[in-house]
Design a protein that fits this description.
Structural class: alpha/beta
CATH architecture of the largest domain: 3-Layer(aba) Sandwich
Order of helices and strands: HHHEEEHEHHEEEEEHEEEHEEHEHEHHH
Strand content: 15-25%
Distance between the termini: 10 Å
Radius of gyration: 24 Å
Largest sheet: 8 strands, mixed
CATH superfamily of the largest domain: Zn peptidases
Helix content: 25-40%
CATH class of the largest domain: Alpha Beta
Shape: elongated
Number of domains: 2
CATH topology of the largest domain: Aminopeptidase
Number of strands: 16
């Protein structure tokens, strides 16, 4: 651990005086993708207080803070800000009671409130410790990660003109691991994701006269069954893919055969060849089943919520992993490959910067160990997007803040 790291992080106690309360406030007031106005305003105000040049409304509600401190590398640190349409059931005193315009509940069920709090803390520490490093820090707060278009929106709104050349980009995510721990991984780390909405057509009729119909319910059922063979029989055993049929909708009444069915699918893959193979297999199977059923119209395919592969740069990741091992010791380890997806990598790809993305734990360590000892981690440890996902405030915030500072100073610190 460098002297610069020790000195910069010596201000953590002071940051904690406002950071914990900021986290509680963000958790209690979540905002859906593209509506993060209150969060963005709080971020911008805090960045200004800590000496950052602030750019607001980048890509809609995104915020970019820049602090320039002489010649040296440009390090971009990113946090996402949006929440999910989930009704919170944690029972926390600062639990969300927020509702959207349509009356649906909103919750920070993915931990983005942790990410924002940690990056604001790291930004304050780095700004306050400018005597001990040289270069430029870009603190980027991204909207709409949950809809897979927030990063792209910031790029399209002129992000490159704001930040200029970037030497390295980094981000982190709170995960259902013991709080106080963190993990890095080189290469493919988060999967690419593709969602599809498929409409298949039938011919409607009275339920008592099926001979007059082409039943799209049966057609959809055959498609669902046949799709189970894609991963099992068309993806090599050494490759990884996940294909989920998450929604099938058809009909309105028990005695009416409808004229269409709509299926929604989600695909996760770790390389472009497998991604292409799976998507092509889905289309081939759907078209074949439609033909077999005598469908009167061609099926319709809509791709949406497409996430890129998060493929961590080996050189960058090794450097961060070494810094983490030096600072955190045994609390730093290797992150297992995740089947979740992110749009963070759209930012460094557009900026031509190598990147890495790591995970930090947010689960109470005693609760995690009890679940592990009982062989019930999957059942007893709440995961992201759950209505009971509730990272413990400490040591989660300390670890996430320290990780961002340690990683940034691996490039910026002179010693």
């Amino acid at each position: 651990m460098t002297g610069a790291t020790t000195t910069v992080l010596s201000g953590l106690d002071q940051v904690r005086t406002w950071q914990d309360e900021l986290y509680r406030d963000l958790h209690a007031h979540p905002e859906l993708p593209h509506h993060e106005r209150r969060t963005a305003a709080a971020v911008a105000a805090r960045l200004r207080e800590t000496g950052f040049e602030v750019h607001e409304e980048v890509g809609g509600t995104g915020v970019v803070g820049v602090v320039r401190n002489g010649s040296g590398p440009v390090v971009l640190l990113r946090a996402d800000m949006d929440a999910l349409p989930v009704r919170e059931e944690t029972g926390l005193p600062y639990a969300s009671t927020a509702v959207a315009e349509d009356g649906s509940a909103i919750m920070h069920a993915c931990g983005h409130d942790v990410h924002v709090s940690c990056l604001l803390g790291a930004a304050a520490l780095l700004s306050g410790g400018r005597d001990h490093w040289a270069g430029t820090v870009v603190a980027l707060f991204q909207p709409a990660e949950e809809t897979a278009d927030g990063a792209r929106g910031m790029v399209e709104d002129g992000l490159a003109e704001i930040v200029g050349h970037v030497d390295v980009a980094m981000a982190q995510h709170v995960l259902p691991m013991p709080a106080g721990t963190l993990g890095t991984r080189s290469g493919p780390t988060l999967s690419a994701a593709d969602s599809l909405r498929i409409t298949v057509h039938g011919r409607g009729a009275h339920g008592s006269m099926p001979q007059a119909a082409v039943d799209p319910v049966v057609l959809a059922a055959m498609i669902v069954v046949r799709l189970q063979t894609v991963v099992a029989r068309e993806v090599a055993p050494g490759d990884t893919a996940v294909l989920t049929v998450g929604s099938v909708q058809a009909g309105t009444k028990s005695n009416v055969i409808p004229d269409r069915a709509v299926l929604q699918l989600n695909v996760r893959t770790y390389d472009e060849a497998t991604r292409t193979r799976v998507l092509e297999a889905i289309e081939r199977i759907v078209r074949a089943e439609c033909t077999a059923s005598g469908s009167p119209a061609e099926p319709e395919f809509e791709l949406f919520d497409r996430y890129p592969l998060t493929d961590n740069d080996p050189v960058v990741t090794d450097r961060v992993a070494a810094a983490f091992a030096d600072f955190f010791g045994e609390r730093a380890g290797e992150l297992p490959q995740q089947s979740a997806s992110e749009d963070f990598s759209d930012l460094p790809r557009a900026l031509g910067a190598p990147y890495t993305y790591w995970g930090i734990g947010g689960t109470d360590p005693e609760a995690y160990e009890a679940a592990r000892a009982a062989g019930r981690v999957a059942q007893d440890v709440p995961v992201n997007h759950s209505a009971v996902f509730a990272p413990v405030i400490q040591p989660t915030l300390d670890t996430g803040t320290e990780a961002l500072v340690v990683a940034a100073l691996a490039w910026l610190a002179a010693d």
